Amino acid sequence: MSLTRLTLRDFRNHAATRLVDMQAFNVLVGENGAGKTNVLEAISLLAPGRGLRRAQPAEMAGRDGAGGFAVAAEMEHGAVQIGTATSADAPNRRSVRINGAEGPAARLAEWLSITWLTPAMDRIFAESAGSRRRFLDRLVLARDPAHARNATRYETALRERNRLLGDPAEPDPLWLDGIEAQMAECGAAMAAARAALVADLATALERVPEQPFARPELAYASEVPLDADALRMALRDGRRRDRAAGRSLTGPHRDDLAVTLAAKNAPAADCSTGEQKAMLIAIVLAHAGLTAGERPRLLLLDEIAAHLDPLRRSALFERLAQSGAQVWMTGTEMAPFSDISGTSAVWAVRDGVAEPA
Fold it and tell me: Considering its fold, how many domains does the chain have in total?
C-alpha cells in the first residue's frame, strides 16, 4: 500500500495542488524556489512531529490563503484516507483526521512509515547532539509507532520537572515522584527502542560493502538505564544536582548517535562533506531494508542525486528499488534521473503548480 493521491491547499506556495497516479519512484523537477521541497514537507506532515523543516504550522500556511492549510492523502485509491490541517483561528494547532475520524498526531505513525533526507541534514554530524537525536528518533518512529507516544509523554514530563526545579520554592517531593515515574517509564522505553534500532542498523551496515557509499559504524551513546526503576531512582537521586543546574541532567534527552567512518576509523564530524553525505545515505538505505514488509513506507529525498556521480546514482536507484518503499525525489533537472525516467511518475513544478511532465 502506498500513496495514490495527494492534495495540498494553501500550503506554502501551493494554493491548490493535486498529484495522482503515483509510482514507486516519484520525481519533482523544477527551479529552486518552485515549490518542490514544499511537496515533500507536506508529505512529511503525514507523520507525527514538525515535518522535515521543523517549522511551526503557522509558517506553512500560504500567504494568499485564508490563514490555514490542508494536506490530504489517499492510499490504494481511497482505501485509507489521512490528512492534517490548520485554521486561521488556531494557526499553530494541527488537527489530524484518519478515515474521517479526528485523532492525535501520534496515530499517524500507525499508518505510514516516513523517513527523509534533506540538504540541511548534511551538517548533522557537525551539529549538536539534538540534531542526531531527532534523526535517530525519526528512524525509530518509522519502525515503531509507539515511539511517538513515549517521546511526547517524556517531553511533557521533562518540561514540567524542569519548571519545578527552576522554581524558587522547594518542589513537592510527591509531585516530583509522579513526574519522574512517567519520565522513567517513557524514557527507558525510548532508550531501549533507540538502542535496538542502532544495533540492528550496525549489523545491517556490516553486510554492506564499502563502495559505492562510505560505510559508517554506529553506536548509541547513552548513560540512561534501560530499566525504568533504575532510571526513576537516578532521577530522584539527581534532584539536588539538577535543581542547582536548573534542568534535568539525566535522561534520553541527553543521548547521542555516535557515527564513525569505518574505512578511516574517523569520527563522522571529522570527515569530508562528501563522506558525511555518503554515510547518511548508507544509514537511510540500511534502515529501509530493516522496515521492509511492515507499514507502507515513504522515503523523501530532497536533492539527493544532484551531487552524486553516475556510479553512485545508479547504485542509489538500485538500492531504492530493492527497498520496496515509495520514493519521492526532487531535482532542478531531469538528467540525474535518466536511469529511472521510464519507470517514474514525474511532475514539473513551477510557482507552486505541479503538472505531469
Answer: 2
